[in-house]
Design a protein that fits this description.
Helix content is 54%, strand content 18%. It is an alpha+beta fold. The strands form 3 sheets. It has a 5-stranded antiparallel β-sheet with strand order 2-1-5-4-3, with helices on both faces. A 5-stranded mixed β-sheet has the order 7-9-10-12-11.
């Protein structure tokens, strides 16, 4: 359920975020394109004007008529330099209310030194300060793009800040939508958990009565087989109900029930209780347990977690092999590892094995009285302690790794 909520939330969050980024990007591209076209159009208009007047200008003096000198450009700082046939500046015109600065004149001279043919250069509006159009022996038009550049950069900054602020709003919206979408699933899941818990409690009493009555039956040669089957199946059902109740308890663990406990001591005691079971399969248990590792936890649940992992390692370990139980810690987390030499877990099963009633080998688990609930219980315990559990196989070694935060609660 937690994974479903996370996946739903991140899916919604990413989709809305992408839309926000798309609109911010689209706005900036449109603004950039509009400014670029505006500069290009100014160059084209000035080119057309200068082409029309080229023939009427004196080859040496190039007198400028009032129409050209009074031509104003409102949106950009545009300057025109009139050239003679030797590309020398005869006159200069400012098409706005600003006087031509020395920087602009210096820029014009630099351009004339480099250019020997008609050329238009605008470049990147975010970086370049000047754009120009050059007609050899005619004119040089320069646009100072400082204001345009500052405006475009400001738009980028504002868009970035809006997206950042919007992320907070998107986060809240995504959370609300996630709650709305997953609410029916959460309710169904909660009802399922309640049903399992209630059904297990309700079945426990009649089953106990049935088992007591079976024990009271007279056993003879005729009914011995049937009574044995009844007892066997009743025991299996009793074990199943017990595991379902255990599963139900782990789903309702609360932080207020946690206390500081020495997890090193819990593990050492639990390992000792499993040594006889391991001995029956000629399995050795080796431990590397850091001493006095204290953690805020539910002692009985942690004890159950360790029991499940060691029992699972023994059950699925090869005979005449070893099991390794390791515990280490640093300032923020503890890491518990239970390793065994046995049949490896396939990559696509590493998550499935923690699902309820998942059993890789149905016949083997039925014979051994297993129901596929142990690892589901283990995962519930780890989740209740705000930790992570995972399983993987490498080099014929299967590892169950548990990580818990120290003083997380």
């Amino acid at each position: 359920m937690e994974n479903l909520e996370k996946k739903t939330f991140f899916t919604i969050f990413i989709i809305i975020t992408l839309f926000a980024i798309f609109f911010a990007t689209f706005f900036n591209i449109q603004t950039y394109h509009r400014e670029y076209i505006g500069i290009s159009n100014n160059f084209m208009r000035m080119k057309n004007v200068m082409t029309e007047k080229h023939e009427s200008f004196d080859k040496e003096k190039r007198p400028i008529d009032d129409e050209l000198r009074n031509r104003k450009v409102m949106d950009y700082d545009v300057y025109t330099f009139i050239l003679n046939d030797k590309n020398e500046i005869l006159d200069q015109i400012s098409h706005n209310d600003k006087t031509i600065s020395d920087d602009v004149v210096q820029k014009a001279n630099d351009i004339l030194l480099k250019q020997n043919k008609s050329h238009t250069k605008i470049g990147c509006l975010y970086w370049n300060q000047y754009a120009y159009h050059y007609e050899e022996g005619n004119s040089l038009t320069i646009v100072n793009m400082t204001n345009t550049r500052n405006m475009l950069l400001m738009n980028l900054l504002i868009s970035f800040l809006l997206v950042c602020v919007g992320e907070v709003i998107i986060y809240l919206i995504s959370k609300k939508i996630t709650e709305w979408i997953t609410k029916p699933v959460v309710m169904s899941f909660e009802r399922e958990k309640e049903f399992v818990a209630n059904a297990s409690h309700e079945l426990k009493t009649p089953l106990a009565v049935m088992m007591a009555n079976i024990d009271c039956l007279d056993v003879n040669k005729k009914n011995e087989k049937w009574i044995h089957n009844l007892k066997s199946e009743s025991d299996r059902m009793g074990n199943l109900i017990t595991r379902l109740l255990d599963l139900s308890k782990t789903e309702y663990l609360k932080d207020e029930n946690f206390h500081m406990n020495d997890i090193s001591m819990i593990i050492e005691k639990r390992v000792l209780t499993f040594e006889s079971l391991a001995y029956e399969k000629n399995i050795m248990i080796e431990t590397n347990i850091q001493e006095k590792v204290n953690i805020l936890c539910h002692k009985e649940s942690i004890d159950e977690l360790i029991s499940i992992l060691i029992d699972n390692a023994i059950c699925h370990g090869f005979e005449n092999s070893k099991i390794y139980v390791n515990l280490s810690s640093d300032k923020s987390d503890i890491k518990l590892e239970v390793k065994n030499q046995g049949e490896p877990i396939l990559p696509d099963e590493c998550e499935k094995i923690f699902e309820r009633f998942y059993r890789k080998d149905e016949s083997h688990n039925r014979k051994s009285g297993r129901y596929g609930l142990g690892l589901a219980i283990a995962k519930n315990i780890v989740n209740a302690h705000h930790g992570n559990i995972r399983a993987y196989s490498k080099d014929e070694i299967t590892t169950f790794e548990v990580k818990l935060k120290i003083n997380e609660h």
